[in-house]
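pls design
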């Protein structure tokens, strides 16, 4: 077993269009999107799959009982801003305006391409989301400007999509 950190491996793309209803992206769709990996702060991106329980207690017992219920949690990411002076774009900010419908494509272990780029045959997670909030973080002396994006999940994610 090999344990790794996401540093230098993980890839995250914002992809506007994924045609298949099963949320299986093509290489062309991913390439048409924007990679935002290098904008993600050390606070990271949070895509929880937390389970909740529903109360199933009855009066026949003094013990509380539960059954498995829904899965999910609040999706969010913290990103750096880019002022463009070095020729870059504020890509993460520009691609995640409030109420934007998009997809987050995440390769937790990177891809098999050069510099861990996502390639055909790689396994990725795909989240169909709507940006519910995009908020600049507090301006603090001596800290890099950042913003937080919160996401509303539009449908069940595909956690094992294989890129076509």
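designed seq:
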């Amino acid at each position: 077993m090999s344990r790794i950190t996401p540093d230098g491996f993980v890839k995250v793309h914002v992809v506007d269009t994924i045609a298949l209803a099963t949320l299986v992206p093509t290489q062309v769709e991913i390439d048409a999107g924007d990679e935002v990996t290098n904008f993600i702060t050390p606070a990271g991106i949070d895509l929880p799959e937390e389970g909740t329980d529903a109360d199933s207690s009855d009066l026949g017992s003094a013990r509380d009982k539960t059954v498995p219920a829904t899965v999910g949690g609040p999706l969010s990411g913290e990103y750096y801003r880019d002022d463009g002076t070095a020729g870059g774009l504020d890509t993460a900010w520009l691609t995640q305006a409030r109420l934007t419908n998009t997809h987050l494509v995440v390769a937790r272990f990177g891809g098999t391409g050069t510099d861990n780029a996502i390639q055909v045959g790689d396994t990725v997670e795909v989240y169909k989301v709507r940006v519910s909030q995009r908020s600049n973080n507090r301006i603090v002396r001596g800290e890099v400007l950042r913003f937080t994006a919160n996401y509303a999940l539009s449908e069940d994610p595909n956690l094992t999509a294989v890129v076509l």
